[in-house]
Every structure is written in structure tokens, then in C-alpha cells.
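[Meeting: bench + compute handoff]

Bench side (C.D.) handed over the final construct sequence. Compute side (W.E.) agreed to return the predicted structure before the next meeting so the bench team could plan truncations. Sequence as handed over:
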Amino acid sequence: MDNRPIGVFDSGIGGLTVLKEITEQLPGEDIVYFGDTARIPYGTRSKETVIKYVLQSFKFLLTQDIKAIVVACNTASALAMEEAQKEYDLPIIGVVEPGAKAAASATKNSKIGVIGTEGTINSQAYQRTIRKILPSAEIIGVACPLFVPIVEEGWENSDVAYMTAKKYLLELKEHEIDTLVLGCTHYPVLRYTIDKVMEGKVTLVNPAYETAKAVKGILKEKNLFSSKLDGGEQRFYVSDDPEKFKRIGGNIIRKEIVSIEKIDIEKI
């Protein structure tokens, strides 16, 4: 047993979809969440910049005596996982591999769509991982950069969200995909809008849910479960605008965010 908290990291509020899934599957675990809200979005940054930001964020989380880190950001998982795993000796779980495995398992016609930030799509991380599992897969990746600010503004159920999704997803509808990976942790917040645009005809893969399952498996394998069965606590840290994070983030996890603190990540 290990009662130290799990660290969860994202570029903003999107990783709260992963935190929500972890708390549902592992209700006794304490969690320390860091959202790098001052430097969002990561999806338009260079690989070198993303690696720098990720390592700085890890350095902060390690000051919180964590037992594992969940990289609840698809761009960071796609571009910086290898560097992070070389740098730090503790379990590090990303979102790409769990999501890719679920997509390969779900598809019936081997036509899979992946939506994400420009960084995630251009990295080909999902495409490579899915093809390792399902070599016959036809994978269509589409960058949807406006989805992140739409979620960050709390507009996920607006006409703006619907019209943006309709424009982005047209190519995927034309390719007759039967499975769609929500390849950014912000995107599950838009799942109802996305499903509406896709006319309910595709299986939506939520890597947040799959990542929580992976976290549970790794904690079991390494005997790192908390001794508590429920009542896990969460502490939140951001690099900018805690009030906005509290307002929108509370809607995502469906409870009030009480413990939140702004930190200067550049000084870590």
C-alpha cells in the first residue's frame, strides 16, 4: 500500500476529464493536479518547447511527494513521454497508448479517425501506435485546434462548437470511419456535440477513461494502491487564472474545486 498522491498533469483544464475517470475508478486515491494554464495551448508548440514545459511541470509535481504521474495531455504524451521516462524513475502513464488500444479493439471496418491538436496529429503518435496493433487500419487524422479554446471558454454546447465541429469532421464523415479517437483530453467535454455531428454512427473512444484503467492496472502491478477505499482528496495547482479554472473545471468534474493555488512554473 502507498498513500502518496497520484500526480496528474495537463496544459490546462482538459486533463480534468482524466482526473474524473481516475476518481471514479480509484475513489480512495489522493490526486495532485497541475494545469499549465499560463502556457496553453501546447498543440501549436515545437517538440523542444513541449519537452521543456513537461519536464518543468514534472519537477513541480515531484515536490508534492507523488507516487506516479499521469500525463493527461495528448500533445505532451505524443511528444515528451520518452524524454520524461528517461529523466524520472517512477511510473509515468500517458494517454496515447490506452486510447490507441481501445480504438483498435472497437473498430469493425478498420477505418479509424483521430482528432487532436496540431502537435498530436503531426506527431503521428496515434497512427503509429494503432498500426502496431492493427496493421490493416486506415487512420485519418484531423487537427482541431479551435476545440481547446472552445472548451476553455465553456462553450462546449454552443452553436459555435457545433458549427466548428461540423467543419472539422466533414472529412471523417466522407471516409466512413466507424471509430473516432478523441485525441485531446479537452475533447470528451465536446463528446455530445461531436456525436451529434457524426449522427451517432461512430464509436467515440475516450482516452481519459482508458488511461484511468491503465493507471489502475499499474498501481495494482506495483502494489501502489492507497489503503483508503474511498474519500480520496484532490489538490489543484495552475500557472495562471485560478478563478477561471475553478469555474470551468468544476463543471467538468461536477463538483466545486476548493483547494487551488497559482504557482510560478518558470521559477521551478
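W.E. noted at the follow-up: The mean pLDDT is 95. C.D. will use this when planning the next construct.
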